[in-house]
Write a structure and sequence with these properties.
55 residues; mainly alpha; 2 helices; 64% helix; 0% strand; flat
Amino acid sequence: MAKPIRNTPILFGEDARRFREEISNLPPIEERRKERARIKESVKHLYEMIGALPK
């Protein structure tokens, strides 16, 4: 049986202000997609390097 999901906490005061500030300063979606693709390519390259190691 699955665990029950707890309610999402509500932010107040300084936490809420900081959250709004961080969300408003996110880079554009295109930049985030490019960065995600770059990371995936790096991981792929790493797996290829690991696979080429002598056993």
